[in-house]
Amino acid sequence: MTIIPSTTLAIPLDLWGNIMSFLPPQQQLTDRRVCQAWLQVSKTNLYKISLMRSISSLKFQERCTFFRQNKLIKDLFNQEFNKTLNFGPITREFVLSRIECKVFDKTTDKGFKYLQTFSPGQRRRIECLTFESSYVDQFEDRKLVKVFKLCPNLKSLTLVKSHITGRGFSRIPAENKLEKLTLDHRNMSLEEAAFGEVFKKAPNLKEFYLYHANITGRCLRKVPEENKLEKLILFHCERLQEAFLTTFFQKTFHLKVIDLSRTPTTGVGLSLIPLKCEVEILILRSCENLDEVALEEVCKKLPDLKEIHLSHTDITGWCLTKFPENNKVEILVLTNCKNLNENALGEVFKKLPNLKEIYLSHTEITGGCLTQFPKNNKLKKLFLAHCENLKENFLADLFFKSDLEVVNLSSTNITGRSLTRFPAKTNLFELVLDHCEKLDERFLADLFFKAVGLRVISLSYTNITGLSLMQIPKKHWMPTLNLRNCNNLNRRFLLKFPKEILNL
After folding, report:
1. Cα separation of 479 and 92, whole Å?
2. What are the C-alpha distances in Å from 106 to residues 100, 109, 129, 147, 449?
3. Backbone φ, ψ for residue 128 (5° rounding)
4. Cα–Cα distance measured from residue 402 to residue 404, given in angstroms and rounded to the nearest whole number
5. Residue 179 and residue 147 in contact, taking contact as beta carbons nearer than 8 Å
6. pLDDT surpasses 70 at 8
């Protein structure tokens, strides 16, 4: 077995490769230049697999940036892609994501020329493509047909700022494998009658994302009864009509994610969703026309719902009291809901035994509703930023009986007295108190002494001197300490902290 020699230890190369795999991809590439031994590690198959996996896990834009900057990645891609067409799942995902980013970086015409450099056998392996149009380089319907001709097994297609009318979908091959379609349209060229053909021509479609489009929803009538749709995102479609949504939702049995944010929906269409539907995530941000009576029916019909996002709406919260007893709701987002009724919220918290995250920032609540959480609640994250009416006695009650990990109370009037009610063995990981001008450092000191797991503290724009930070045991130093614009800060209290953890 090949090992790395050392004065203190000898570790097999593959084990070193596994250890380095936990680092971000950029760090992995940097570390291979540290010494000859680490360069050896970077040549092992395990290291290469780990690097490819970490790159593939990046968000799309981050991946594209990463691929542009690293010649080594280009060489690795060429090596793996040309080696064999029967690569494993990790290598396959890496290679396909590299091709997708390469096409995205080019004009649409150059993107097609790049695809044509591959053999037909290689192109049959391509499953994901993303094209971005411009005013001088438009992606039109004829190019839509060409995509499926070049890559017959395409499963995911994303078109950003395209100029298609939708007519091209009627001409894509009947045997296409399309499962995910994303259109960030931002123009008025879609013809609904023609565009609706995509639902007929793509029987395997599972995910449909449409952003900033001029549709009314008429095209949804062409969705077949035996559809496989699991995700529906209709973001900022301002002309959407409830009647068409009503017809559509009555024949969706597999939907798990629904996002109708920034649309004029009232929720009536959603209330007619089949009882067999297993929706897990419902997002209705900035839907100004929501009808709470309709939402009551929605809550009754979705026992599998895990996340519900209703931020920037006018709801009072009474609709949420209609969840069935055996509900599975874990995340509730009510940010910037100015009409919330605290009595209603109190009833809601009693009925959601699995609630783990609650977002109530920019609301008018006092916190009285928080006292209704049961003793054995599962709450982990609490966001109450900019809640100017908060009363600390209500917070103290919640802190005492909850095992919170993340708390954001920025821009509130708290003194910190409530923080002393955290139990001695608190698992608090992140605490954000930016712009809390009434903080009393004595209370902070008490929390810092016992919150041994605290790793992020943000106290920017507060009046603290830093004296409370002296209560943090040296062995419990956190990696992030934000103290920007703390004008009363005494630098003497910060001398014991390494400079790299301070953000001043």
Report:
1. 36
2. 10, 8, 12, 15, 55
3. -130, 130
4. 6
5. no
6. no
In this structure, the dihedral spanned by the alpha carbons of residues 282, 285, 290 and 294, taken in order and rounded to 10 degrees, is 10
User: Is residue 210 within 8 Å of 186, Cβ to Cβ?
Assistant: no
Q: Which two tokens stand for residue 211?
A: 């952003």
The confidence score (pLDDT) of residue 9 equals: 45
- Give phi and psi for 357, each to the nearest 5: -135, 130
> What's the Cα-to-Cα distance from 17 to each of 38, 50, 56, 94, 468, rounded to whole Å?
9, 8, 17, 18, 42
User: What is the spatial distance between Cα 187 and Cα 291, in angstroms, rounded to a whole number?
Assistant: 30
Q: How is 317-361 classified by DSSP, letter by letter?
A: SGGGGGS-TT----EEE-TT-TT--HHHHHHHHHH-TT--EEE-T
**Cα–Cα distance for residue pair 484/357, rounded to 1 Å:** 27
pLDDT of residue 367: 96
Please say whether the beta carbons of 271 and 298 come within 8 A. yes
Burial 39-54 (b: 16+ CB within 10 A, else e): ebbbebebbbbbbbbb
pLDDT in tens, 54-92: 777 778 777 777 776 666 565 666 555 555 444 566 666
The structure tokens listed for 332 are: 């509730």
Residue with tokens 């990645």: 73
Per-residue model confidence (pLDDT) at position 84: 42
Q: Which residues contact 159 (CB under 8 A, 6 or more apart)?
A: 130, 131, 133, 139, 182, 183, 184
Q: Return the sign of the alpha-carbon dihedral for residues 292, 298, 303, 309.
A: negative
Give one word for 172, left, alpha or beta, with left for phi > 0 and alpha for psi -120 to 50.
Answer: beta
Residue 72 confidence (pLDDT): 58
Q: Mean per-residue pLDDT for 361-390?
A: 96
